[in-house]
Amino acid sequence: MTALNRSHAAARLSGLHLMAAVRRITRQLDTRGNPDLKGLPETLCRALKVQEEAGELAQAVIGVLGQNPRKGITHTWDHVVAEAIDTALSALVLAETVTRAHLEDTLDDRLEHHLDHLRRRAADSGAPDDPTTTRETIEVDAWSRRP
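Given the sequence above, the corresponding structure tokens read:
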């Protein structure tokens, strides 16, 4: 197996772990959550959870920049990254709640949409075309930069 194939396999494995974690969290919330909040109220609460996590991300950014004069610097970039991941996980749990078993397809569609949009914007701006930019090369590139 080449280094490129190993990187690609690692990226896919990580994606599988992420999806498994999202499904596990969603199942736990389904079984352990408030039984009075089933259906639409439960979905709305999960949407609000994304906003709550985004607020914590904003708080971490303010803390890393020391923008609150009363508190000064209260966070590190590691805190910012952790809050960004929490926000992303909450968003994926919401997406899983809504899509139920179609999340991978939805994510693939959205990623392709964003890549197409970026390609069009690059072309419109006169940037050179990069035909190697695909979802697979982005996954491999992201994993090749990991320590």
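Helices lie at 3-32, 40-65, 77-99, 103-124, 135-144. Try to locate this feature in the token string yourself.
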